[in-house]
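Please complete every field before forwarding. Incomplete forms are returned to the sender.

SECTION A: IDENTIFIERS
Entry label: holo-418
Bound molecule: zinc ion
Molecule representation: SMILES string

SECTION B: INPUTS
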Amino acid sequence: MSQTVSQPLTTSAGSRFLRYVTLDTQSDEQSESYPSTAKQLVLLNQLVAELKDMGAADAEIDRFGYVMATIPATPGKGHVPVIGFVAHVDTSPDVSGANVRPIVHKNYDGRDLILPDEPGLALREADHPELAHQRGNDIITASGRTLLGADDKAGVAEIMAAAEYLLAHPELAHGTVRIGFTPDEEIGRGTQHFDIARFGARYAYTLDGPTLGDLEVENFSADALTLTFKGFSAHPGYAKGRMVNAIKLAAEFVHRLPRHGLSPETTDGYEGFVHPHQIQGGVERATVRLLLRDFATHGLDDKAEVVRTLAEDVVRPFPSASVAIERHESYRNMKEVLDRYPEVVTHARTAMQRAGLTPRFREIRGGTDGARLSFMGLPTPNLFAGEHNIHSRLEWTSVQDMDKAVQVIVELCRSWAE
Ligand SMILES: [Zn+2]
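SECTION C: PREDICTED COMPLEX
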């Protein structure tokens, strides 16, 4: 049993990444098919072939596009809990992912990184202070016209490189390891058809986070509210004392929402918010859609109560007006699940330390596939993959951060086997 820090690995993650990003795998929220775009299947099928080539004989893709494969346990380690590693292949619909031209900026020294396909566009340390920790590393950007796709092809490349490393080093003891690649994460459907039973892991890790050492074990709990204001229509020339305009009820409600705190524009860290994101309607009827976010589920109840009180206050002076409120659960903080399995986080922390990193706990101000998997019965925190400025033409990663992520995966497998 080795508690010492391992030597840094040089892996195939960087070269794999450069190949994977040239395939356009953008997902599409307008699509009703699954996966939402057929082009994601090109990479998913390629991953199956590469997994088989490296010796993961059971690699397969199901009818929804999910890729799963096994790295068998080393001799005598069949009793170790099965752990899984998961990443998504799709890229954000917000920015083009077609004809990505990755550029490796070798041996970064603080210079501006020029993106040649868009004059004037450059990655500068002054604007992106995280770059200061990358001196000497090989930074990868896109060329200025597209996103890069580090979210989450960095995670895909790291898991692939780790699988290759483990299969080539049978002397490193580990239990059964399962690998999963998913489509459609960016449009919120990444786990829609994920077959937990077929995956067969007891615990899993997504590799889909930003900075070296980041360990994400909590995320927002989230609900959606729809408020329907009913007014009373009349001919506007003869409406005196009779008309109640639902548009004005909705507008008055939005106006009364707290602005200092409780809103996305004025909160960060562990603060939650109430966010009106859509409003539509006419004189008779107007709807306002809101997002509720809080790290504690009871905090969502408090926020729903604030909304209800405000809305009822708005309609109260008008006997012919009313408001109806519908609340739908979106997702929950995975910490509620992970707190019951502290060993999942303990092993991640140990693995990072053995890879020479200082683990940093970060909260996700959004959802993650790992949160959904956790509530489906597969506890799944999120680990750094080295992706920065995601969903942007300034997206970047570094070869050395990817190699570190591979090392963390390898150390995680070893830690669980001890
Ligand atoms: Zn992602």
